[in-house]
Amino acid sequence: MRFIDEYRDPALGRGLTRAIADAVQPGRRYHLMEFCGGHTHAIAQHGLADLLPEAVRLIHGPGCPVCVLPVGRLDMALALARSRPDVILCTYGDLMRVPASGGDSLYTARAAGADVRMVYSTLDALAVARANPHREVVFLAIGFETTTPPTALALVQAEREGLRNLSVFCNHVLTPPAIVAILADTADAPPLDGIIGPAHVSTVIGSDAYAPCAARFGVPVVIAGFEPLDVLRAIVMLMAQINAGRATVETEYTRAVTATGNRTAQALMEQVFTVRESFEWRGLGALPASALRIRDAYAAWDAEARFSMPPRTGREHPACACGSVLRGALAPHDCRLFGRACTPERPQGACMVSSEGACAAAWTRRPRLKDARPKDTRPKAQPAAVGSGGGDS
Amino acid sequence: MNSPVRPFPPLDHTHGLVEMVHGAGGRAMTQLVREIFVTAFDTPALRRGDDTARVPIPPGRLVLTTDSYVITPRIFPGGDIGSMAVHGTVNDVAMSGAQPLYLSAGFILEEGLPLSELAWIAGTMARAAHEAGVAIVTGDTKVVERGGCDGLFITTTGVGVLTDDRVDIAGDRARPGDAILISGTLGDHGIAVMSQRENLSFDTPILSDSAALNGLVERMVAAVPDIHVLRDPTRGGLAATLNELADQSGVGMVVRETALPVRPEVRGACELLGLDPLSVANEGKLIAIVPAEHTDTLLAVMRDHPRGHHAALIGEVIADPDHIVQLETALGGRRIIDWLAGDPLPRIC
Question: Composition bias, kind Basic and acidic residues: at what positions (chain A) (predicted)?
Answer without folding.
Answer: 369-379
